[in-house]
Amino acid sequence: MKSGLLACIFAFYATLMACAVGGYTYFATFVHNEIYPYFREHRTETQYNEARLVFTFLVISAVLIWCFFLSTVLTLFIDTGKYWNERRRPWPICDISLRIFIPGFCMIVVVVLAVLILLLAWGWWDYFESAKMDWFASHCHGLRGMIIAILVIIDVSFVLGTLLRTHLRSRSVPYVPR
Predict the structure, then answer these.
(1) How far apart are CA 139 and CA 134, in angstroms?
(2) Hey, which of 1, 91, 99, 133 would disulfide with 128, CB 3.0 to 4.6 Å?
(3) Which among 72, 77, 62 has a CA at the least distance from the CA of 18?
């Protein structure tokens, strides 16, 4: 019963992260194929460079979200294995990097990039809304909404991942050496 619930939570988490990465890649494609050429033809060099930066930020964020997800999954598997006791960990440096550094680094970078993207997308939305370009405005509005949702998902997944690791660690069977 409890392992079925854990499998459902894991499947939901994996689906959520896959949707987040899918959203990032969709909007990266949109920025690269639509906004980037528009600003190259109609706007200043500043907007053109901002579109290139947003495209790069979206691609980097998609990769880092997968790294965050994979490090969380690996940490869960390490916590439920036979090396649950801290003294019995086979590779403590690898364990520390999987638990703290990789997810923390990925989360901080994705949050910083998301805030930068959010600010630029907000300005683009205002520009396209005032220019009565509804197609561009709706996509920029969607990009804003996705970034806000990603920020909430990252915060919730970090808290839930910590709670889940704590719960699994307290419920695991102790390792008895032979």
Answers:
(1) 8
(2) 133
(3) 62
Residues with Cβ within 8 Å of residue 72, at least 6 apart in sequence: 13, 103, 157, 161
Reported as a single tens digit per residue, the pLDDT across 14-23 is 888 888 889 8
The reply to whether 7 falls in a domain is no
Tokens standing for 152? 């909430």
Could you give the number of structural domains in the chain? Answer: 1
Q: Which residue range(s) make up the domain with 25?
A: 19-171
Q: Find the angle CA(53)-CA(22)-CA(38) to the nearest 5 degrees.
A: 40
Question: pTM to 2 decimals?
Answer: 0.74
Does the residue 13 lie in any domain? no
The b/e string for 128-146 (b: 16+ C-beta within 10 A; e otherwise) is beeeeeeebbebbbbbbeb
Start-to-end CA span in the chain (Å): 30
> Which of 75-79, 101-105, 150-154 is predicted with the least confidence, judged by mean pLDDT?
75-79
The percent of the chain in helix, strand and coil, each rounded to the nearest 5, is 90, 0, 10
